[in-house]
Amino acid sequence: MAIKELIGQTTTLTVARQAEFGYFLTDGNEDVLLHNNEVNRDVAEGDEIEVFIYVDSQGRPAASTTIPEVAVGRYAWVKVTDVKEEIGVFLNIGLMKDILLGAEDLPVHKSVWPKEGDMVYITLRVNRNSLLYAKLASDPVIQSISTKASRNEFNKNVQGYIYRTAKVGSWLYTIEGFKGFIHESQRRIEPRLGEKVEGRVIDVKEDGTINVSLLARKQESQDTDAVKIYEYLMSRNGAMPYSDKSMPEDIQERFGLSKAAFKRALGKLIKEGKVYQEDFWTYVKKE
């Protein structure tokens, strides 16, 4: 098999000779360079060594004694190292050279592209020009590595990584190995592809997949919203032109809350004796 046909895979080659910048390995017909930077073991002429074949910055096949977890036909979670809006994101698979996940394989909206430090589940692919790229795992691939959740997981907190995004919601793979879905109504902002999120299980489906909410439990949410409203009041010297009679769109624009959530939080502050309402305004109670 030609060296080019082994790009993105592991193979065993023989050390033919040493050069100033590394070693030339051979399969008996072709040579490939093992650069000094990609050597993590003792190497001597005549040795048979296992190497991973990748493509260097000049577009040439090259070898590494580092064997990545990911390969053509093999999947792994890898970390995002850099984002280039014009071409895509770069991923660390363990080699000196990072691998590109191209813009054509990323979400249309760049606001949900991965950021540095995010984790994505990928395999490797080789294009027509024999260049090596990353490829995101499809939904069936995630399904194949998933564990079925039991009803005991209901209402428990889970953490996981977003592996697919869409207008209707986000899909995640949890640390426990569950495949989950976050409906758009169960998140305040759309999480990024590759972002680590934490939420709670709000349903366990018959097939063992879960539905997850990223919204705080009502009491936690009420506490958070009350703090937000009170801090806004204090920033205005204790008075604001908003009350439980305000228009929903005005509340949404100012606080990012539904009118129901605003009224719950405001009611909490009134009950605690921190604020009062008068003539469609809300005021901080003086001590």
Automatic annotation (TrEMBL):
Pfam families: CvfB_1st, CvfB_2nd, S1_2, WHD_CvfB. SUPFAM superfamilies: Nucleic acid-binding proteins, Winged helix' DNA-binding domain. One of its GO terms (molecular function) is nucleic acid binding. SMART domains: S1. InterPro entries: CvfB_fam, CvfB_S1_2nd, CvfB_S1_3rd, CvfB_S1_st, CvfB_WH, NA-bd_OB-fold, S1_domain, WH-like_DNA-bd_sf. Residues 6-66, 153-215 form the S1 motif domain. PANTHER family: CONSERVED VIRULENCE FACTOR B (PTHR37296). Belongs to the CvfB family. This is S1 motif domain-containing protein.
